[in-house]
Design brief:
InterPro entries: Cyt_P450, Cyt_P450_CS, Cyt_P450_E_grp-I, Cyt_P450_sf, Cytochrome_P450_Monoox. The chain contains 20 helices and 13 strands. By secondary structure, the chain is α+β, with helices and mostly antiparallel strands. Bound molecules: protoporphyrin IX containing FE (HEM).
Length: 549
């Protein structure tokens, strides 16, 4: 064959190849687009049956949301269209809000995933976590191990941690008192941080020389995390973002530093004491958060597996510290503010603590199980100021059919407007927006109603001496409208532990100090979203007055 012919053949062949490639690309793109269009039609078809405000704009209800907050829009929509309403957040993004407690409970137990963007703040700051990921499959195993650790051995240990936290805290308060006023926010952040540090790292945490820098770094990162996570495309071009990333890297180094210190000491203790069972607090917590414990990581054959196993507990530790720190600080700050503004309740809790103290030695730790008003105050504070305005869920793969007959298409963002539900008169009575911890106490023998609603007993005068009183504490989780820790398959795994920890912390604190509002400080601060969580703002200024025993 002549070279001209060969060239022609080759050219034809190349043309044929290019054409085939273009056709295949065109067919693939068309199929993907068709799939998207079918999905969109399906979504629109199912969504038609869900009530909601009319929407004529291509951008859905976004123009409405530019003038009002989402909570306000949902409050009005639920009023008008019932307990399940839809909003379009864009041409293809459907949001369904549920306000009726029984339906919420059903939805929260059936929808196991969280919307894909959930946990973005965690991911940007600390990397992928197996605790705060979107799909249930990724978090299921780790949730079980962490929950077993928190609600088992650590719950017992939790009764001892706070005495040390209070000592550490009091040192800090004395320092701050010397310099001026104390803000609820500052104290609550420190209380939360010490409680979580002691939970995860054990007593080692109090002896760690870098604990103060670690706390400051967490506060700075917490302040910026929501801002950087709010960008839909990671803002690599911003200098501030890289500064933020450097802080996150520093935090990671410090976390690894305390982890190594804990591991060194674990070895030291088990090396010195042959009777020691080798399962020190930190080792067990590390296993719960990473599944690696050192053992799994070392037996792993692949170097990448080894690295991954070493990284996982570190990321999870930072994730738990971050979530626990923000939420616990919010709740502790709220309790401090409520106690400072409700001196009568504070005094009754003090009597409760003194009663529980009777017969115990100075160093003995009293159990908070009998401090019903203290526990009720924690529940009521959590009810009035949940961690955030919404619980979010999603069923990524399957449509969700509720007993009421509503079908919610896969991929829809499901929300529970938690503030509206927790302050709804139908579930909580006419004083739903008031601080009344007595609503969680009822006379012995008195039952909750069928929905689990705890009616307001509200009789403050009757509740004086916990031993003589005939009150019992209602389990708040029996009420489907009590959702500060969420509910169902993705509920908070720290609820029991953190409630017990905060109660023990306040029992020690109130035994020694009276909390007072500084003259001129704000008496009615408003819940405002700040750094991803609700906080009472402006933050009240408080005082700790030492009690004369
Ligand atoms: C006052 C303190 C706390 C509050 C108010 C709180 C609240 C919440 C809420 C509302 C959720 C979402 C639940 C849902 O969507 O149904 C959640 C999730 C979670 N919480 Fe907490 N939390 C607190 C403390 C803690 C602590 C101390 C820990 C662990 C030590 C913890 C571990 C978790 C985990 C692992 C999740 C993720 C569950 C998942 O996505 O599967 N929380 N928390």
């Amino acid at each position: 064959m002549s070279s001209a012919k060969l060239e022609l053949r080759l050219r034809e062949y190349a043309e044929w190849e290019i054409n085939a490639f273009l056709w295949i690309s065109l067919i693939t793109v068309t199929l993907v687009l068709l799939q998207k269009v079918v999905k969109l039609f399906r979504l629109r078809h199912h969504a038609r049956k869900i009530p909601g405000p009319p929407c004529s704009s291509f951008y859905g209800h976004c123009p409405l949301l530019s003038t009002q907050s989402l909570t306000e829009v949902l409050a009005e929509s639920h009023e008008k269209y019932g307990s399940v309403v839809k909003l379009w957040l864009g041409p293809t993004k459907l949001l369904v809000s549920i306000k009726e407690p029984a339906l919420i409970k059903e939805m929260l137990s059936k929808a196991e995933d969280k919307p894909p963007l959930t946990g973005r703040a965690f991911r940007l700051a600390f990397g992928q976590s197996s605790l705060f990921a979107s799909t249930f499959d990724r978090v299921e195993k780790r949730r079980v191990t962490l929950s077993t650790e928190l609600n088992g051995r650590l719950l017992e240990r939790g009764k001892v941690i706070p005495a040390r936290v209070v000592d550490c805290l009091m040192e800090r308060i004395r320092d701050i008192l010397g310099k001026g006023n104390i803000s609820c926010k500052m104290i609550s952040q420190h209380m939360a941080f010490s409680l979580l540090g002691a939970t995860i790292f054990g007593d080692e945490f109090f002896a760690w020389s870098k604990a103060t820098v670690y706390e400051e770094l967490f506060m700075t990162i917490a302040k910026d995390a929501c801002f950087w996570a709010s960008y839909s495309v990671t803002p690599f071009w911003k200098r501030g973002f890289w500064r933020y990333q450097r802080l996150c890297e520093k935090l990671k180094c410090l976390t690894q530093d305390i982890i190594q210190q804990c591991q060194r000491n674990c070895k030291l203790i088990s090396g010195m004491d042959h009777n020691f069972d080798n399962e020190t607090a930190y080792k067990r917590m590390e296993a719960a958060l990473g599944g690696s414990s050192s053992f799994d990581a070392l037996v792993s054959q692949e170097p990448s597996g080894y690295l991954q196993a070493r990284e996982e507990p570190c990321r999870n530790i930072m994730g738990v510290m971050f979530h626990g720190y923000l939420t616990t600080a919010g709740l502790v700050g709220n309790i401090l503010a409520r106690l400072a503004t409700h001196q009568d309740i504070q005094e009754k809790i003090y009597s409760e603590i003194i009663m529980a103290r009777k017969g115990l030695g100075e160093k003995d730790q009293q159990s908070v199980d009998n401090m019903l008003l203290l526990l009720a105050t924690i529940y009521e504070s959590a009810r009035l100021l949940p961690a955030g305005p919404f619980l979010q869920r999603c069923s990524l793969k399957h449509d969700l059919t509720l007993k009421s007959g509503v079908t919610i298409p896969a991929g829809t963002v499901l929300v529970v407007p938690i503030q509206l539900v927790q302050m709804d008169n139908c579930s909580w009575g006419i004083d739903a927006s008031q601080f009344n911890p007595y609503r969680f106490l009822s006379k012995k023998g008195r039952q909750c109603d069928q929905l689990g609603n705890i009616s307001s007993t509200g009789n403050a005068e009757e509740y004086v001496d916990p031993r003589q009183s005939s009150f019992v504490l209602n389990d708040p989780n029996n009420n489907a409208a009590f959702l500060p820790f969420g509910s169902g398959s993705r509920a908070c795994v720290g609820q029991k532990y953190v409630t017990q920890g905060i109660a023990t912390l306040f029992a020690s604190l109130l035994e020694r100090y009276e909390i007072r509002l500084q003259p001129g400080s704000e008496k009615n601060p408003k819940p405002t979203v700040n750094n991803c969580v609700f906080q009472l703002l402006p933050c009240p200024e408080i005082d700790f007055v030492e009690r004369v025993s």
